[in-house]
Amino acid sequence: MAKQKKAPRPRAVTPKGFRDYFGAQVTERAEMLNRIAGVYHRYGFDALETSAVETVEALGKFLPDVDRPNEGVFAWQEDDEDGKGDWLALRYDLTAPLARVYAQHRNDLPTPYRRYAMGPVWRNEKPGPGRYRQFYQCDADTVGSASMAADAEICAMLADTLEEVGIPRGDYIIRVNNRKVLNGVLEAMGLADDEERSAAVMRTIDKFDKVGEAGVRELLGKGRLDASGAYIDGVGLSDEQIERVIGYVSAKETTASYLESPEASDTSGEVSTELKLQAEYLRSDSLPDSVGENRLEGQFSLLNHLHDLVADSEEGKKGLDELAEVADLLEAQGYGPDRIVIDPSVVRGLGYYTGPVYEAELTFDILDDKGRKRQFGSVAGGGRYDDLVKRFTGQAVPATGISIGVDRLLAALREKGRVGGTESGPVVVTVMDRERMADYQAMVADLRNAGIRAEVYLGNPKNFGNQMKYADRRGAPVAVIEGGDEHAKGVVQIKDLILGAQIAENATLEEWKERPSQVEVPRDDLVAKVREILAAHGLDAGGRAP
Amino acid sequence: MAKQKKAPRPRAVTPKGFRDYFGAQVTERAEMLNRIAGVYHRYGFDALETSAVETVEALGKFLPDVDRPNEGVFAWQEDDEDGKGDWLALRYDLTAPLARVYAQHRNDLPTPYRRYAMGPVWRNEKPGPGRYRQFYQCDADTVGSASMAADAEICAMLADTLEEVGIPRGDYIIRVNNRKVLNGVLEAMGLADDEERSAAVMRTIDKFDKVGEAGVRELLGKGRLDASGAYIDGVGLSDEQIERVIGYVSAKETTASYLESPEASDTSGEVSTELKLQAEYLRSDSLPDSVGENRLEGQFSLLNHLHDLVADSEEGKKGLDELAEVADLLEAQGYGPDRIVIDPSVVRGLGYYTGPVYEAELTFDILDDKGRKRQFGSVAGGGRYDDLVKRFTGQAVPATGISIGVDRLLAALREKGRVGGTESGPVVVTVMDRERMADYQAMVADLRNAGIRAEVYLGNPKNFGNQMKYADRRGAPVAVIEGGDEHAKGVVQIKDLILGAQIAENATLEEWKERPSQVEVPRDDLVAKVREILAAHGLDAGGRAP
Fold first, then answer.
1. What are the backbone dihedrals phi and psi of residue A392, each rounded to the nearest 5 degrees, phi first?
2. CA closest to A24 among chain B residues
3. Disulfide check for B336: which of A405, B56, B106, B272 has CB 3.0–4.6 Å away?
4. Which residue of A has its CA nearest to B63?
5. Under DSSP, is residue A124 helix (H, G, I), strand (E, B) or coil?
C-alpha cells in the first residue's frame, strides 16, 4: 500500500512581533497594575474594560471605501452573505474605545466620567528589536470636565501612582506644560493662520534633541544638509521668528539645569512655596518680590522668557493662566516641585493636545546598551483633548487623561530592584516509591494548607537525579525526600537547596560538615521545618522575599 | 460657496456579539481571578500569558490552502508584497496556545510543566442572547505527566479554588470519570473498531437529557420521529447492545439520587471513608465487606453495573483502575465525597479526552428565567488529553487540565451574594465657590491620604442640584459641602446620603428630626467624621462592605 503523503508539521512559533510572558513576567505586571488600580480607585475613577475588537468605523482614522482599511491596525471583514459585512479591527489604543463608549452610553454615565482602563492594544507595524505588535496600556481619563482641576488631579494622581508602585520621591518628576503657550508663541510670530508652517515649526521643535540648536536654526531658516548629504528645505522663517522658537526650545535646557540645582531639591519646610511663586509669576510679568536674585534663577528666567515670547497673543496668555491655575491647585494639595513642576519646555505630543500636557520622567541613571549612563526617561504622558466624542455626536466634550507605559515602568521597577529576581520556586516533594504517591500528595497537601507553595514531582520517578534537576530548574528552595527506610522510621529528609548551592560554591570542608544542608526530621515536623528553612532565607510561605 | 458634503457620523456601537464591562463588573472579575491565581500558585503552577494573536497554522483545525480559513475564528492575512503573508487569527481557547508554547520552549521549560492562564478568547460565531464572541477563560494544565497524581491534583486544586472564591463546601461537587470506561463499554458491545457507530452512540448519550431513556432507546435502535415530525435514523444496535448503553447512561440518575441522600452529605468523622471504599470496590468486582446493605446503595450499585458493562475490555478495566487510583490519591489528601466523587455518569466532552475527565457543578438552586427552580450546574470541566504537542513535534506528550467558566462562576458568586451590590461610590466633595477649587481639592487629598475613596465635583458647579444628582448617580455614601459661610466659620457640612435615602423613604417626622442626615463639623474633623459615617454603614474606606 502506498504511504499517504503527510501534511508538513506546523511551526511552533509566535507570529512576528508577538511574544509570550512567563511566570513572574505575568505576575509582576499584574501586581503593578493592581496597585495602580488601587490609586485610581481611591481617586474616584471607575474601571472600564472594552472589547478588544471595534468596528473600523468607530475606531476612525480609516476610510470605509478603501478595499482593505488596515493601515496600522489588524483588521478583517465580517462574513456576510452579500460580502458587505462590517470591517472590524483590534483596538490600537484605549482612548478610541473610550470615545465610542462615552458616545454610546453618555446618558447612563455620570458627567464628568472618570474612568481607568488597562489591557493590551495592537499595532500592525513592522516589528523590531524590543518593538512588539501587542503591548499593554494603562490609561486614566476624565471626560466631560473643562476644569483645570481635572488636569491638576491627573497630575497628582500620577505622582501618587508612581510612589505607590515603588518609585521613590526624588526619582521622578512630572512636568506640566500647556499647548496654548506654544500656540501663543506661533501667533506672536505671525503664524496663527499659517497651519502648514506652524506644523513645520512643531516638527522641527521635535527634532531639537537630534540636531541641536544650530540645526534647528538652519531648519527653521534656509534649510540644512543632513548627515546623508541630502538637502532638507527650511521653513523660511525670519531671524526674529527664529529667535522666538529658539527662546522657546532652549527653555528645556534651562529647566534641566535648574532641576539639577540644589534649590530644586530643597523641599524642607514649605514644599510648595515654589509652585506658589511660579503661579504668582505666571499671572504677572515680573518676578515676585519674594524671589531673590540668586534663587530659582533658571526656572524664573524661563518663565520671564515666556511672557515675552507669547507677547500679545490671547491664546498664549490663556495658556499661561491655565498653567498658573494648575500650579495653584497642586500647591493646595501639597504637591511641590520635588514631584511636579510647571515646565514650558515639554513639547512631545503637543500636536494632539489642546490645553495642559504632562509627562512623567524617571530621573535616575541607568546604563544603556553601550554601557553609557543616561536618564531612564519618560514613563507616562498625557494631556487635554477636546474632540473626544465629537466625531460621533457632533458635540465637543472636553477630556483630559494620562497613559502609563506599562512595559517601561515595569522595566524601571526591575532596574530599581522593586520587582523581580527574589521569588523562589515551590517546595518540591520527590517521589522515591511510586506506589506511595498518595503519601507524597498528603505531604504537599499539608504544606499547602500551611500556605506554603509546594508540588510533588509528577514526571517519571525512576531516575532520582532527574528529580533533583527538576527541583533545580524550578528554583525550589527545599526538596523533601522520603524513601522506604525513612517511611519505616516515620521521618523525612529535608534538603535546603539554597544553602546547598551556597556550600557547593564556597564552603570549606569544615563548613560543609558544620552546616549540613540536609536534615532528617519526624514526618510530623515537616511543615514546621520547611517553614523554618524558608524563614532563614528571608522567604515567605509563597517563596517571596518581602 | 457650496457647502461641502460631510461624511456621515460613525455609529457608536460595539461590534455584534461584543460588550463592555463597567466598574464592579471589571473589578469583581479581577478579584476572583486574583484569588484563583493564588491557589494555582500555591499548587506550583506558573503563570503564562500568550499573545492574543497566533498563526492559523499553529492554531490548527484550519487548512492553509483554503482561501479564507476563518471558520470559527477571527482571521486575517498579513500584508506582504507578494500577497503570501501568514494567516493570523485570534486565539479561540487557551489550550491551543499552550500546545504551541510547549512545543516551542520545551527545552527551557521544566517537565512536567504546570501552568495557568487567564484571559479573553474569541469565537467567530453567531452571537445570541448571553452568547458573546469574546469571553474570559481561566485554565490550569499539567503538561508532560502521565501520572494519575496529576489528575488527582487538578481535582483537589479545583475544590480548593471554588472554596477560595466563596463557594462553600456542600454547594459544589466535583465529579470524576474516565473516558476509557466508556470505551470499554463500547468494546464490550463489539464496537471497538466501528468508529462511526461509536461516535453515533456518544452523540446519542449526549442527547439523554433532551430525549430521555425511551428516546435514547429509539435512537440507538431503529430510529425516532422527532418533535418536528422528521424521522431520525437509528444507530441500528441490537437489544443487548442497547441495554449496555442504557445501563451506562442511567448511571447518571442513580448517582443523582445518591448524592441527594443523607449518606452522601454525612461527612462526620472519616470524611474520606467513602472514596476509599469506592477505590477498593473499583479494583474488585464485588462490594467490600465493610459496605452494609443499606449504605451507599446507589453509588455502589452503580459501580457494580460498570464492572458488568465493561466485561472483558482491557481498556475498560484500565479505566476503572485509573479511577481507583485517582480516588486513592484524593483520599490520601483528605478530599471526601462531600467535595469530589467518582461518578461514571459524567459524559460531557468525553470525545475530546483520553483518560480521566472531571466536572465541577454547583448544587444550589437558582430560579431560571421563567421562575422555575433549577440547579446552578456546571462551572468548570476538564480532563486528560495526550495529543497536545504531537502536531508540532511528532512526539506524544501527556497532559491534563481544567478550564473554569469565568462568567458562569462569577454569576454564581453574585447569586450567592459573595460579590457585587455592596460597593458604594466615592465620597463627593461639592463645589460651592468655583474660585476655591483648591480648597476642595485639598479636602479630597486629605480624605484620600486617609485611604478614603473621594473625588471633587468637576462639572459645571453653577447648579447645586446637578451636583447632588451626580453624587446620587455615583452612589456616593457621603457628600461634603463648604459654602462661603462655612468657610468663614472654618466648618464643613457633611451629608450622610445613605441615611438620607433611608429617611426619605421611611421616616416619621420625629425620626427625621432626631436623626439628622446632615451635620456641621470643624474642617479639621472632616476625615474623622466621614470615617465615622462610613463605619456606621458597615463600609470600609474604599466604600466596600467587607
1. -85, -45
2. B47
3. B272
4. A7
5. strand
ipTM: 0.85
Segment B358-373 shows an average pLDDT of 85
Smallest Cβ distance to B391: which of A9, A451, A473? A9
Closest residue in chain B to residue A119, using alpha carbons only: B119
Cβ of B19 and A114 within 8 Å?
A: no
Smallest Cα–Cα separation from B170: which of B255, B252, B264?
B264
The one-letter amino acid code at B3 reads K
What A261-266 contacts at long range (C-beta under 8 Å, 24+ apart), as own/partner pairs, is A261/A298, A263/A295, A263/A296, A264/A299, A264/A337, A264/A338, A265/A170, A265/A338
Helix (H) or strand (E) holding B545: none
Hey, of B33, B40, B45, B76, which one would you mutate to test binding to chain A, going by the most A CBs within 10 A of its CB?
A: B76
All cell numbers assigned to A544: 517571596
Pairing between β-strand A340-342 and β-strand A356-367 as defined by DSSP bridges:
unpaired
Chain B 464-483, CB below 8 Å of chain A: which residues?
A: 470, 473-474
Q: Does B50 contact A542 at a Cβ distance shorter than 8 Å?
A: no
Q: Please give the Cα distance from A231 to A243 (Å, whole number).
A: 23
Sign of CA dihedral A477, A482, A483, A489: positive
Please tell me the predicted confidence (pLDDT) of residue A265: 41
- Dist CA B520 CA B335 (whole Å): 57
Q: Which residues pair with B233 in a beta bridge?
A: B223
**Do residues A20 and B50 touch, judged by C-beta distance below 8 A?**
yes
What does the pLDDT look like over B275-331, one tens digit per residue?
555 555 555 544 444 444 333 344 455 566 677 788 889 999 899 889 888 988 888
Q: pTM of the entire structure? A: 0.85
**DSSP states of A418-458 as a string?**
SSSS-B---EEE--S-GGGHHHHHHHHHHHHHTT--EEE--
Torsion sign across C-alpha atoms B244, B246, B247, B251? positive
Mutate to test the interface with B, among A22, A31, A73, A539 (most CBs of B within 10 A): A22
Q: Which residues of B touch A392 (CB under 8 A)?
A: 9-12
Q: Does B112 lie at the interface with A, CB-CB under 8 angstroms?
A: yes
| Neighbouring residues of B101: CB distance < 8 A, sequence distance ≥ 6 | A12, A20, B48, B50
Residue among B15, B23, B334 whose CB faces A86 most closely: B15
Q: Contact at 8 Å (CB) between A122 and B52?
A: yes
For chain B, positions 44-83, list CB contacts with chain A under 8 A.
44, 46-55, 57-58, 60, 70, 74-76, 78-79
Residues of chain A contacting residue B163, judged by C-beta atoms under 8 Å apart: none
The whole-number pLDDT of residue A288 equals 47
Cα–Cα separations (whole angstroms), residue A29 to A26, A414, B189: 5, 11, 54
Task: Report chain B's terminal Cα–Cα distance, integer Å.
Answer: 66
Residue with cell 448544587: B363
Strands (E), B59-145: 75-77, 87-90, 113-122, 134-143
Interface of B with A in 480-499 (CB under 8 A): none
**What are the tens digits of pLDDT across the range B78-131?**
877 777 788 999 999 999 999 999 999 999 999 999 999 999 999 998 888 878
- Residue the block writes with cell 509563597: A542
For residue B49, give how far its alpha carbon lies from the nearest alpha carbon of chain A (Å).
Answer: 5
Lateral strand order in the sheet of B399-405:
A21-22, B46-49, B113-122, B134-143, B399-405, B373-385, B356-367, B172-178, B340-342
Residue B407 contacts A where some CB pair is shorter than 8 Å: no
Q: What is the pLDDT of residues A452-504, one digit of tens each?
A: 999 999 998 888 889 999 999 899 999 999 999 999 999 999 999 998 888 77
Cell of A108: 447612563
Cα–Cα distance for residue pair B248/B345, rounded to 1 Å? 7
